[in-house]
Amino acid sequence: MKVLAVGIISALVGIGILIASHDAAAERIGDLARVQGMTDNPLVGYGLVVGLPGTGDTKQSPFTRRSLVSTISRLGVNARDLEAGIRGHNVAAVMVTARLSPFMRKGGRFTVRVASVGDATSLVGGTLLLTSLRAPNGEVYATAQGPVDASAPGRIGERVRKADPPEGRRTSGMVDQGGLVVKGVPVAFNGRHHLWISLDRANFTTAARIARAINAATGGRPAVAEDGRSVQVSIPDAARGNVVGYMARILNLRVTPDRIPLVVINEQTGTIVIGKGVRVSECAVSHRDLSVVVKGKRVVPPAKDRSVPLTYLARSVTLRSLVSALSALGTRTEDMIAILEALKASGALEAEIRVVG
Fold first, then answer.
1. Which of 143, 226, 345, 355 has its CA 20 to 30 A from that of 62?
2. Of 165, 181, 197, which one is at a domain's C-terminal end?
3. Same domain, 273 and 330
4. Same domain, 115 and 238
5. For position 79, what pLDDT does the model report?
6. Distance of alpha carbon 310 from alpha carbon 129, whole angstroms
7. Residues 349/263, Cβ–Cβ less than 8 Å
8. CA distances (Å), 150 to each of 113, 155, 227, in order?
9. What's the average model confidence in pLDDT over 106-128?
């Protein structure tokens, strides 16, 4: 049985666990919120990934052959009569998705994601053919093409998700900087009478502090906190010809946010970010071959046929200490994520968990 003292932190960053130590200090409004209208725009398209080593769609996905024939025909090759003879095991039909950032203009580059829609067994080694990407209104705003990165997940610090398929059988991936903007999304601010600042995390106290800071800096009352998410800002007549400059000054004002303890988990990359002040109350955790007890009492005994690593933690310890101890035991990131989610579900984790990726 292994008993570890807590407090081992130095190795955490190298294995995908980051400790975010933020004191209650003033921050820029622009780091806490954004001007409404500066949201990403979802794009989607249907395309083909070619060059696969026999891992593409089979005849059970007939739409892939039809799509390939259509693509070849558009390039000036008459392939209509050859459709029945096309095997297509080196081709896979995919859906391509992306989010177009605001203010991106024609010629801008961005990363896209691809996912198989047929019965392909892997996209490893494939290349996405030129694909049109459409907005919800049906208009084409971008195209995408390039080599697909369907890298296999590994251990801590590498891409990892629950129920990952074995290496070489990845049916989704990314095309790094493979997206090309062909039509920008216009966003006009000059001449506006009102703008709204939207907080990244809804909080009544922070919204009220932002409104007070703006009013104090402008010498009037142009800002009103409408709720915990939105602050309305009235644009004075003198600034309507340069709303961008006016809002830039406002977004550079500093306020002290009302912090809520937060744990951010990225299941795609296997990264865990722990905010300051996250604590764990009295509990006992048993996960696979691990047994962790808060308050120094082991509730779940180890199996008789093997020695289960056991970690003792004082009551109401910081999550930083818990993660340090688990890391010292060689815990995989996916197991760490499962333990954190179980702690939250039981009410022992005194923080909000946000899963991204």
1. 143
2. 181
3. yes
4. no
5. 67
6. 52
7. yes
8. 10, 16, 43
9. 93
Q: Cα dihedral sign for 49, 51, 53, 58?
A: positive
What does the pLDDT read at residue 94?
A: 96
Per-residue pLDDT tens for 65-92? Answer: 888 888 888 887 776 666 555 666 899 9
Closest to 357 measured CA to CA, from 159, 128, 135: 159
pLDDT given for residue 97 in this prediction:
96
Please say which residue of 181, 203, 232 terminates a domain: 181
Q: Are residues 290 and 231 in the same domain?
A: no
Look at the pTM and tell me if it is higher than 0.70: no
**Total domains present in the chain:** 3
Range 140-146 average pLDDT = 96
Tell me the residue range of the domain where 155 lies. 42-181
Does residue 344 share a domain with residue 305?
Answer: yes
DSSP letters along 51-114, please?
--SS-S--TT-HHHHHHHHHHHHHTT---GGGGGG---TTEEEEEEEEEEPTT--TT-EEEEEE
Same domain, 214 and 166: no
Same domain? For 8 and 74 the reply is no
Contact (CB, 8 A) for 117 and 45: no
Q: Which of 36-40, 43-47, 315-319 has the lowest mean pLDDT?
A: 315-319
What is the per-residue burial (b if ≥16 Cβ within 10 Å, else e) of 5-40?
ebeeeeebeebbbebeeeeeeeeebbebbbbeeeee
* pLDDT band at 111; cut points 50, 70, 90: very high
Structure tokens at 111: 């990363």
Q: Are 276 and 220 part of one and the same domain?
A: no
Q: Which residue from 93, 83, 112, 89 is spatially nearest to 47, judged by alpha carbons?
A: 93
Phi, psi of 71 (to 5 degrees): -65, -45
Sheet holding 271-274, edge to edge: 17-19, 271-274, 262-266, 352-356
Judgement on whether residues 201 and 275 belong to the same structural domain of the protein: no
State the Cα–Cα distance between residues 241 and 191, nearest whole angstrom.
6
